[in-house]
Amino acid sequence: MARWTVDEPTTLDFDGVVALRANIVAGSISILPSDDRPTLQVAEISGQPLEIVHEAGMLVLNHKSGGWDGVLKWLQNTRGRVAVTITVPPDCPVTLNLVTANAVVTGLTGRVSIKTASGDVTLDGVTGSIDANTAAGDIEAQGLAGTVAFKSVSGNLALAGGSLDRLTAHSVTGKVTTDVDLRTGGHAQVNTVSGEVTMRLPESTSAKVTLNSVTGRVDAAFPELTRQDRPMGKYITGTLNDGGASLAVNSVSGAITLLSRTDPEELT
Questions:
Q1: What percent of the chain has pLDDT over 70?
Q2: Is 181 within 8 Å of 162 (Cβ atoms)?
Q3: What is the pLDDT of residue 267?
Q4: Are residues 71 and 169 in the same domain?
Q5: What's the confidence (pLDDT) of residue 93?
Q6: What kind and span of H or E run contains 252?
C-alpha cells in the first residue's frame, strides 16, 4: 500500500488503477479517460490536506476534514479548496462523494456513482451506468449511453444528446430536462413532487407513453397521444409507432411537457 498526504500542488502516477473513490469537500475534481499510465495532479490546495491511498489497484482520495466538525470548519473557510485532475482507464469504475465541490467526468465506459450535497456535476460522453444522488447540486450531461438513475431534492437534471436504455429520475422540486433518444426496448420513468419535467424525443420514437400530473399542466406534441382531464389529475396516454419502449412521467403539481424533434435523416 502506498499513502501520501498532500498539502501543496503535486503530480503522482500509478502502476494501475482498477477503481477510483474520491471524497471531496470543496473545490473541483476532473476525471478523464486515458490508456496511458494513470496520473493524479493537484493543481491547487488550501486549508486541509488531501490524503491519497493506492492499494491493490484501488485509488482513494480523502479530504482530511476531521469528521463533520472538520467539514463545517472547512466550509466556514472560503479559501479552503482543492483542484484535482485524474486520468484513469476508460472502463474504471468511479465513485464520487462531494459536499460543495464540483466535478467533471468525461469519456468513461464503466460505472459512475455520484453523491453530492450542493456541488454541480458535468458528464460528457459517459457511456456506462450512471447513478447520481443530489440534494441541491445540478447534474448536466451530454452524449450519454447506457443507463441513468437520478435522485434529487432540489437539484436539476439536464440531459442532451445520446441514447439511453434506461432512465429513472426521482425529484422533489428539481427540474428534469432531457433531449435524448430512448432505445427500442428501453424504459424511462420520471417522478417529481413539484419539479417540472420537459422531455424531447425524435418523431420516430417507438414507445408506450403515460404522462400524469395531479394539478400541473400536461402537454404533448405527438398527435397520436390522447388527453384526459379528470378532477384528480390530467393524463396523456397512447402508443408511438409500435410501442417498443416505455415512458412514464408522474408529478403531483409539476408541469409535464413532451416535445418532438425531427429525425436527423429527415433534415438531409
A1: 92
A2: yes
A3: 41
A4: no
A5: 98
A6: none
CA 265 to CA 252: how far, in whole Å? 37
The CA distance from 104 to 264, in Å, is 29
Residue 119 lies inside a defined structural domain of this protein: no
- pLDDT exceeds 60 at position 147: yes
Residue 52 falls within a domain, yes or no?
yes
Q: How far apart are CA 58 and CA 24, in angstroms?
A: 17
Residues 164, 234 within the same domain: yes
Contacts of 22 (CB under 8 A, 6+ apart): 29, 60, 61, 84, 86, 94, 95, 96, 97
Q: Is the pLDDT of residue 145 over 60?
A: yes
Structural domain including 35 reads 1-107
For the chain, the average pLDDT equals: 91
Q: Give just the sign of the alpha carbon dihedral 174, 61, 44, 141.
A: negative
Q: Of 231, 207, 234, which Cα lies nearest the Cα of 219?
A: 234
For 155-171, how does the pLDDT look when each residue is reduced to its tens digit (9 = 90+)?
A: 999 999 989 999 999 99
Largest CA distance in the chain: 64
Task: Please say whether the beta carbons of 150 and 195 come within 8 A.
Answer: no
If asked whether residues 144 and 259 sit together in one domain, one would say yes
